[in-house]
Each structure stands twice: as C-alpha cells, then as structure tokens.
Protein 1
Amino acid sequence: MTINIHNAEIVLSAVSQAQYPADALPEIAMAGRSNVGKSSFINGLLNRKNLARTSSKPGKTQQLNFYNIDDQLRFVDVPGYGYAKVSKTERAKWGKMIEEYLTSRENLRAVVSLVDMRHEPTADDVQMYEFLKYYDLPVIVVATKSDKIPRGKWNKQESVIKKRLKFDSSDTFIPFSAITKDGVEKAWEAILTAADLS
Ligand SMILES: Nc1nc2c(ncn2[C@@H]2O[C@H](COP(=O)(O)OP(=O)(O)OP(=O)(O)O)[C@@H](O)[C@H]2O)c(=O)[nH]1
Ligand SMILES: [Mg+2]
C-alpha cells in the first residue's frame, strides 16, 4: 500500500471525546514535553514547513490536533507537558484531555513518545512512558534534535535514554532531526507497521 504524504491536512482540533473524528482510521499520537519537537516531527514526516504549527515559545499546541494523511491514517498532535508557566488548573485540564484520549481511543495504534536526544529523559518523560506501557500501548520513542549532538555520541545517548525509561525491547527507538531529516524513513516504517499499512 502506498500513502501520498502530500495529501495531508488538518481535520479538526478537539478538547473532548465528542469532538474526535467518528470514522475508524488508524491514529498515531505524538506525545512529549513542550518544545521537544512534536509539531516539527509531524512537519518533517509530511515534508511540510508549517502544517503543524511550531514555535520556539513552549505551549503552542493546546488542543488535540488531528491530521488526515491521504484518507488512510491520522496523526494526532498532543499538547506538550512539563511547561512550567502553565497554571495548576490548566495542567489538570491537560491531564484529563490526554488521559481520556490515550486510554479510550479505539483508533489509536501507537504513540510516538518524543524525548530530547541531548538529555536524560525528565521525570515527566518517564511518567509518560510508564503510563503508555501500563495501558499496553505500543510506543515509538523518537529522540529529537539529533543534529545538536555529534554522531559519535548517539549510541551513548541512546543507552542513557533507554535505561532511564526502562525501555521495553518490543518498542522502537529512532534518533530524529527535523533539520537534517535524519530518521524520517525509519519513523515512517515504524508508523506504517503500527498502523498495519505497510
Ligand atoms: N535543531 C533542532 N531544532 C528543532 C528540532 N525539532 C524542533 N526544533 C525546534 O524546537 C522548537 C520547538 O519545536 P516544536 O515542534 O514547536 O515543539 P512542540 O513539541 O510541538 O512544542 P509544543 O507545541 O509547545 O508542545 C522550535 O524552535 C523548533 O524549530 C530538531 O530536530 N532540531
Ligand atoms: Mg506543537
């Protein structure tokens, strides 16, 4: 099966279940700390500059944004966690919204969990991964901003990240850069496999 990645558009933004698309298309969600590069990852995969809005200011994405890809697959851009300047009430709302989506969405085939390749995963990153594993969701760990560290350090960083996450060997780990596009093919392969489209 082939997918035309150029045929991609935002479908809708949602804050609650009633607003999710009603069909049965497989969905892949992108979760990660605010500013880690979720929207840039979506743009990189779809070869678009700004389909998913990116910003150097954290907290840009505040709703679940659903992207239709060639009527075969959807990406779901999830608002980032760990943004300090968000109020307690906002954080609780975020928690409820993301938990509701991740734990009840039948279309969901896998979650791309994005972490910054330069650093050890944060406590929030670990908590997210544990949460996903608790709900038996397949996870594709994407280590972003690989362009910011020399290749000679990639293996070491991969070990640091996997160790801290207690990485499940049935999951996939992919170094990624939205700048150099490194990891795009591997990411597509993992996503299409998870969505049963390969
Ligand atoms: N060098 C480099 N910068 C990146 C990469 N990916 C994202 N960035 C930059 O990191 C910043 C945040 O990227 P976004 O894609 O908006 O991050 P996000 O995770 O969607 O952020 P929120 O929507 O706030 O949760 C932007 O300034 C991007 O240009 C990458 O692979 N390499
Ligand atoms: Mg974003």
Protein 2
Amino acid sequence: MVEHSSSESQSLKKSKNIWLKNTLNSVKVSLYRCLWLSIILLFQIVVLNFVLCAPSKSISINTQILQETVMPLPSLQSNQCQSGMVYVYDLPVMYNKELIDNCHDLDPWHSRCKAVSNDGLGPITAGLSDGMPENLAPAWYWTDMFSGEIIYHARILKHKCRTTEPELATAFYIPFYAGVAVAKYLFTNYTAKERDWHSEMLLKWLQDQPYWKRANGSDHFIMLGRMTWDFRRSNDEDWGSSFIHMPLMKQILRLCVERNPWDHLEISVPYPTGFHPKSKSDLDQWLNFVQTRKRRSLFTFVGAKRKVKSDFRSILLSHCYNESESCRVVDCAGTRCYDGTWEILEAFLDSEFLFTA
Ligand SMILES: *[C@@H]1O[C@H](CO)[C@@H](O)[C@H](O)[C@H]1NC(C)=O
Ligand SMILES: *[C@@H]1O[C@H](CO)[C@@H](O)[C@H](O)[C@H]1NC(C)=O
Ligand SMILES: *[C@@H]1O[C@H](CO)[C@@H](O)[C@H](O)[C@H]1NC(C)=O
C-alpha cells in the first residue's frame, strides 16, 4: 500500500492538471480507507464460507451416498450445478497470458512478476513462520490486492460447474485481465486511445463469437480486479479507461472489487487476502490461534504519512503516537510495508482494533 502511495504522489507531482490531482487524491484516500475494511470483510466472508460450506459438504456427501442408492448418477450431477454450467472463453493470449508473461512491464515503476505469480496468489511468505503455527505458514502468500482477476480465472477453470462445451453453458466467463492491462496506463500521461486499446480489441473480438450473438452477450460476465472507477472515464483527459462505458459492456455482468452502487450490472466481490487455507483444518487452526491470542494494545495504526494537504493519515498517526499507552504504531515511512513482514501481521494479531486509512 505504501509503495503505491509513494509512487502515486510521485506521479501526481508530475501532473499539471490540478483538478485531476484533487479528484485522484480524494478518490484514493477514500479507496484506501476502504481497503482494510474490505480485507477484514473478506476474511469474515472466507470464514463464513467455510463455516457454511463445511457442514453442507458433509451433508452433500451423505446425500450423495443416499442418492447413489436410489438415483442414477446424471441427475445427481445436474443437481450439483442447479444454476447451470459456465463456459470459460479461450481468449487470444494478449488478453491474459501475455500480460502475465510481460509482468516486468505492467507498472511504470516496479516489476509485477511476483504479484502475478502463482496463479495470482503471489509468492509464498517467508519469515512469517516465526510467530504462527508452523504448518499454517504455507497458507500465507504475499497476495497482491489487484490480482483478483487472475485468481478468479485459475479457480473457475477447476470449478465443478465449468463446461468445455459452449452449447451446454448457461453463462460465459470472459477471462480478460482488464485491471492488469490498464494498470500501467493509469498513472502516466498515456493517451485515451492507449488506455482503451485492450478493451476495444477485446470487445471487437467478442462480438464476432457465435455464443455472444446467441443472447447478445447478456449471459456473459467478467471479473474486474481493480475498482470500477478505473474503467469509467467519460472525457479523454480524465482518469482511467472507458471500458465500462463501451456499448457492449451494457450487456455484460461484472464482478468487481469496488462496484458502482448505482449500476445493477455490477456485483461486489472482496479484495483478495493473503490467507489461502488448503483445508478446513487450516482454517480452524488459524481461528483458534487468532481467538486465543492475547491482545496487548487497544488500537493499532499501520501506515505512513502522505504528502498531500490535510492528510488524514498524518492526523491519525499523530493521535496514535500521543496515546502510546493504548495505541501501537507501525510506521511504514521508509520501510516497504507493502512487502509485509511478520511485524505487521503481529501488530494486527496483538490489537483489539485497527485504524484504517
Ligand atoms: C508525457 O508528457 C511529456 C510532456 O508532454 C512527454 O515528454 C512524455 O513523453 C509523455 N509521456 C508519455 C508516456 O506519453
Ligand atoms: C444488443 O446489445 C446492444 C448493446 O447494448 C444494443 O445496442 C442492441 O440493440 C442489442 N441488440 C439486440 C438484438 O437486442
Ligand atoms: C500530539 O501531541 C503534540 C505535542 O503535545 C501536539 O502538538 C499534537 O497536536 C498532538 N496531536 C494530536 C492529533 O492531538
């Protein structure tokens, strides 16, 4: 996060457009404020998902045994995918694989190769094993917040309701990494045409596909790993690409890490976290570890000041330093909190509440 904000302020300094600068700042400040909340929410959703899925799994195994004795297998299979099957387009590589292959060129400042590695999960953490149960260390990855579209693609390819025969499909997933593709064009003065290039080409390709024509695209969907506002440019000189404003997108359902609340075609999904448990037992063990841990401070703030006017993070940091009895500071100035250390996770684990900004 901090890495991003310093890169960001660097690019903002260069910008001559004051209006864009202010807009960006206010959007970014509130987006990052939401980020940790989203991460916490995601964790809860993962927990809920497991809690809800786990018993139903054992129930479904039981019913499977029951059904196998009374029913033929095909009807059992269709029961498992009651909403139908998903077909995953095999897109030309320029829309996904080639972007990942060129990972050193996805961002104006750094290589993104680690962030997009491992099907979007990122590298397995090293150095986290000191403080946590030893066998859980492999469940923690340095997952990048913007890799949701890569993770989603890898997972749906293995989904039990995926079909490789389009005529059997109820829904069509378009594995275009729109957020990965646009990232490097966001922070520098690329032209509107350059920012829209991948999106325009993709939609041209798509409208010639026979299964697009079948329902005029209304059974198609995509996953967007960056916030919707990165794809909603109205004027050439404004922020982002205009992907979502392109006519064909009016047909396509979008899963999005930050949706536009007024767009009924968008569905929010959480940002990815770094915890990727491989079994229910991993999750149970982690929950037990977290719940039984002694909380030594009431609040924790992890972050750094930003070089912007009325910086909210600076105010929060100052409050936290002044209340050192109850508030713990992990000051990211000068260090790369983005790459994470055990210190950050430990600060979260040792605290009752977190400040997010
Ligand atoms: C951005 O604009 C500057 C000044 O007009 C120019 O020198 C530079 O090449 C531009 N960069 C890009 C990526 O277009
Ligand atoms: C298909 O979708 C496009 C874009 O939304 C729309 O302009 C067009 O009228 C639709 N065609 C049909 C046959 O529904
Ligand atoms: C923290 O304490 C310093 C020194 O007493 C004071 O100047 C500053 O205003 C305080 N910060 C906040 C946010 O209250």
